[in-house]
Amino acid sequence: MSTHSSATTPAAEVSYVYAVGRAGTPLDGAAGRTAGLDGGRLRTVNSDGLVAWVSSVPRDTFSSEGMQAQLEDLERLEAIARTHHAVVEAAYACTTVLPMRLATVYLDDARVATMLQERHREFGELLGRLEGHVELGVKVYADPRETGRPDAEAPTDTLVPTSPGRAYLQQRRAARRSHQDAHRAAGSLAAAVPDRVAALATARVVHRPQQAELAAAAGENIANEAYLVPATGVAGFRNALCALADDVPGVRIEITGPWAPYSFATPPATAARTEDPR
Known about the structure:
Radius of gyration: 24 Å
Structural class: alpha+beta
Order of helices and strands: EHEEHHEEHHEHEEHE
Number of helices: 7
């Protein structure tokens, strides 16, 4: 028999789902210690041995049109993402959870309970797979400025006078060579990463490289991957990669995490749906 929280979602609001875990864990009593979007109170919705962390959000704001407007407002989108991430991390600190995708909303708590019931077997299998694991990110960057041949400089023959036009062309050629060298070296290093950690990770997901304006680090993001790693093996994973780029000028590797396993929480074929609350 399915049960859900007694909280009633007003018609002007819908239920935003952050994460799903097993009932009977610390999740049941910890929701009240964390705030949801716009400071909203978190609550739990239970169904068939699963529990979801939920808060109420404005129905209009999270309709298809409302969400599109928020996606176009980078400041607002960042605020939503930060809060969503903070709630998921708070849940993950209690126990293994499945992070829901950003802006996963349902008409009310009863719909959330139905979703948990319908996906009980799938979620249970995923939780079993993820228990005891964390997500680590691996990003490879190409940065020509670190090749030892600055973009603004080019080798010149001190015995032969160089015209301003010729010097400019030399500088452009040097910059192009620096970029090509760094890009090629970064690609080779990125290709070596999966084999290097094959015995240390349970699964791997390849994400699209981040665009320059979204990448936190300098340089061009060549590879952006996520690995599912046993929590006890984080140090070994880092050690396997930390010195990989030390002797490769113009290439930098960044390891992030450990995080809740966002990249592994939902199988691609049955992605968590975002229900239009209209």
